[in-house]
Design goal:
Order of helices and strands: EHEHEHEHHEHEHEHHEH
Structural class: alpha/beta
Radius of gyration: 18 Å
Number of helices: 10
CATH architecture: Alpha-Beta Barrel
CATH class: Alpha Beta
Shape: globular
Number of domains: 1
Number of strands: 8
Strand content: 5-15%
Strand order of the largest sheet: 1-2-3-4-5-6-7-8
Helix content: 25-40%
Length: about 280
């Protein structure tokens, strides 16, 4: 059976595809680096955007810029997005931003991050006026800081969690947009979502990228979004991706936990350039 023709809704579309750098404690680092390189180059060759995570779920990993530099990977404007959390020293933040500018990587997803006791945390004192009146550095302060120190250099995105209580999550989003966010990336979408509908109406002029969970492991997804999600019935990632396209045809989609061997060919990329 030709599975390429079984999923017409996912073909010939532009996608953001999440790729995790190797973990610090990997016992097969060379293999992991080789696999990262294969995934990264395949995404760029296909005309998609590679989204590189920053210690995802608090698991210590090599930084995207370290891996790009070590493997001497090419980067194309609008085809690489770096995730950036607040769990860095200010010196590290500047090293990451300077590297991105040097490699023409202008799209950053700025998130507070999951953190780890083994990771440093940005200091409000170091960041100066952008952190006044607050106890902790969040993505809001980091977005402000980047715009202050690197004016008009980066396209900064922020996260939206549709599973959080409405009032609190929208208050956070208003602060993020006021700080200078220019696009939004959601947590994984599993159904038509009322909070998401409100977000799309409120920020109709801002690009919103919907996350599609491509693993069958819903337990891991619950851990990722911080809320217990129903595990009733079998979860079909491709069917969910098709449904997201139908529910929200105006939105781009980011694929998380994509199985490159079993799923990438279903995307059937045919484009030569990536469009936001």
């Amino acid at each position: 059976m030709d599975t390429r023709n079984s999923h017409p809704q996912v073909r010939n579309r532009t996608y953001f595809i999440e790729i995790l750098p190797p973990k610090i404690d990997s016992d097969k680092l060379l293999d992991d680096l080789d696999l990262f390189s294969q995934k990264y180059n395949r995404v760029l060759k296909s005309g998609f955007c590679a989204c590189l995570t920053d210690n995802a779920m608090g698991k210590l990993s090599y930084q995207p810029i370290e891996v790009i530099q070590e493997l001497e990977l090419n980067s194309k404007p609008d085809q690489v997005m770096i995730h950036l959390t607040t769990f860095h020293t200010l010196t590290q933040i500047h090293e990451i931003l300077d590297f991105c500018l040097d490699r023409n990587i202008f799209n950053l997803l700025v998130v507070t991050g999951d953190g780890s006791p083994r990771l440093p945390k940005l200091s409000l004192t170091d960041m100066g006026a952008v952190g006044s009146g607050k106890k902790n550095v969040t993505s809001v302060e980091l977005v402000k800081y980047i715009h202050l120190k690197y004016p008009s250099k980066f396209n900064l995105g922020v996260a939206f969690n549709p599973y959080e209580p409405f009032a609190g999550e929208f208050a956070k989003m208003e602060a993020k947009v006021a700080a200078g966010a220019s696009f939004i990336v959601t947590q994984p979408i599993l159904a038509k979502n009322e909070n998401l509908d409100v977000l799309l109406a409120k920020y109709a002029d801002m690009p919103v990228i919907l996350d599609a969970w491509m693993s069958k492991n819903i337990h891991l997804l619950s851990e990722a979004v911080g809320h217990l999600l129903s595990e009733d019935g079998a979860y079909d990632p491709i069917a969910n991706l098709e449904a997201i396209h139908k529910w929200y045809p105006q939105c781009k989609i980011c694929l998380t936990q994509l199985n490159f061997k079993a799923q990438f060919h279903l995307l059937d990329p045919d484009m030569t350039s990536f469009e936001w």
